[in-house]
Model the fold of this input.
Amino acid sequence: MSKKELDINQIIKISDLNIWLNSSHVLKDIYLSFKEKMITGIIGPSGGGKTTLLRSINRINDTTPGFKIKGSILFEGKDIYSSTIILHQLRQRIGMIFQKPCVLPRSIYENVIFGIKMTKRKKKKVLKMIAEEKLMDANLWDEVKDRLSHSAIGLSLGQQQRLCIARALAVEPKVILMDEPTSSLDPISSLAIEDMILKLKERYTVIVVTHNINQAYKISDYVVFISDGRVIENGIKEEFFNNPRDDATQRYICCSSNDYWRKKGLT
Ligand SMILES: Nc1ncnc2c1ncn2[C@@H]1O[C@H](COP(=O)(O)OP(=O)(O)OP(=O)(O)O)[C@@H](O)[C@H]1O
Ligand SMILES: [Mg+2]
Done:
């Protein structure tokens, strides 16, 4: 992929972003662009500001006490912090998946269509079709097609996380933010989610925070390394991992994934 290709179709553009939570200056002078229909992996040490960055992209931080923001976040060219933005519409366009799956105590089917029912009137037949399609997109259909009326609480954690993804997809977002979506899952369930994320980029822009360097390498097109509230380094996946420019990036990648670097003969 050429650099020129990466410069086009920037769906989200962040400029001079600074965020404070209470007296803490959590994000500092962030400039970042996210490309349409690509997967961006965000990595970095704990407490560096990854979650705060994701949450600022669909304005979940707004209600955090002491939240203050400077700079801009443009989504499709519009400032998402402008007073004309309607929050629930923004969050439909930019969905979010959290570390722990949060299913509703309702049936599997009701979970998928929950967001659509809140916003649009659709016929039952159409809702059923949407539920099937989104469960397929989330790689969950085959496992639940015979028990759509059963409670979602009975699903495994990995299945619940995929159900949350189906629910987010059902309202037709453009961007999906994922904050460590596999950190509470076993390796097999994680694999199912990684494979699904790779499929999603045909239609969606995905931004994933992960502590798993092998996962970042496997699924990302573009990688951002954040530490102590700053973007230390970002770049196309292959360049980022093969030639990290910054010492801190290099140290972080090496200590997070010795196996990977040993295989490459770089340690
Ligand atoms: N409500 C708050 N008030 C003050 N500081 C906060 C608040 N929430 C988070 N922080 C601080 O902001 C910094 C960034 O936190 P954040 O959760 O964004 O980091 P992170 O990179 O996602 O970490 P992790 O990898 O552990 O999830 C941390 O130092 C954290 O203590
Ligand atoms: Mg976090």
Observations:
- The beta strands are 10-21, 24-35, 39-43, 68-75, 78-79, 94-97, 175-179, 205-209, 222-227, 230-236.
- The first strand starts at residue 10 and ends at 21.
- The domain at 3-263 is CATH 3.40.50.300 (Rossmann fold).
